[in-house]
Design brief:
single chain; Heme ABC transporter ATP-binding protein; 279 residues; Rossmann fold
Length: 279
């Protein structure tokens, strides 16, 4: 049986060029998606540039995960266009896309009890047969260390807790070393410490020149770590900009249909968002 690495290795593909600081890694223009009878995205425009973290926030059903899937070219839009690394997403082959963007879905079930290290190593499959294949061992080790999963490298993935599985899945994405990272709720199953760890990793990757687009429900994390935030509401981008500009009580109250108070953190100055609770 051919392995995942074999499937990538036999295909000719154009390797990504070095990414210039500030260059556009992914762009959505006029993006619309309809699923069944529901308009999930409606004329969405969004860009993410090398060196920045962009957070997608909004209430349940706002279109965040759908937008991320469209940005990854895993979901074809009904209209509009997604461009990755300067080209229409559908102009790249699947192996070429895998060299340019890595994707962390909300959940990734594995049916077989692969050892943790093997799961992380799956992220290196796109580089099989290229000059960067020699980086495999170092990339896997670095990704596991960053996500603090090295100590259970030999443990079956299926035996891990939900939070541990989430960190292993992120390690796989990091090992891929694509210049665009697309992460769907990477902190959902994590405790407080590891939520902070994941967002610090996002900032580190941006500092190294990657573009990071991350779906978050925690507005405090988005405010603390994102360069820009896109607030989605009913399939549209209600506001896009720096968190301290767009996270206003008026906007968030309207979007979430929940009164909130927004005030600066006493140490960092980043916005703190607190729901108004009725006595």
């Amino acid at each position: 049986m051919r392995t995942l690495r074999d499937l990538f290795a036999v295909r000719s593909r154009e390797l990504p060029s070095p990414v210039a600081a500030g260059s556009c890694a992914v762009e959505a223009a006029g993006l619309s998606v309809r699923l069944g009878q529901r308009q999930v995205l409606d004329s969405v425009d969004l860009t993410a540039h090398a060196g920045e973290v962009v957070a997608l926030v909004g209430p349940n059903g706002a279109g965040k995960s759908t937008l991320l899937a469209a940005l990854a070219a895993d979901l074809a839009p009904g209209s509009g266009e997604v461009r990755i690394d300067g080209r229409p997403a559908d102009a790249w082959s699947a192996p070429e896309l895998a060299l340019r963007r890595s994707v962390l879905p909300q959940s990734a079930a594995l049916s077989f009890p692969f050892p943790v290290e093997d799961v992380v190593r799956m992220g290196r499959a796109p580089w099989a047969g290229t000059e960067r294949e020699d980086e495999d061992d170092a990339a896997v080790a670095a990704a596991m260390a960053a996500t603090e999963v090295t100590r259970f490298a030999g443990r079956p993935f299926s035996a891990l807790s939900g939070g541990e599985k989430a960190r292993v899945a992120l390690a796989r994405v990091l090992a891929q070393r694509a210049p665009l990272m697309l992460l769907d709720e990477p902190t959902a199953a994590l405790d407080l410490r590891h939520q902070e760890l994941v967002l610090r990793i996002c900032r580190e990757r941006a500092a190294a020149g990657d573009a990071v687009v991350v779906v978050l429900h925690d507005l405090g994390l988005a405010a603390a770590y994102a360069d820009r935030a896109a607030v989605l509401h009913d399939g549209r981008v209600a506001e896009l900009g720096a968190p301290d500009e767009v996270f206003t009580g008026k906007l968030l109250g309207e979007v979430y249909r929940q009164p909130v108070e927004v005030f600066p953190h006493p140490s960092t100055g980043t916005p703190l968002i607190v729901p108004v609770r009725r006595n």
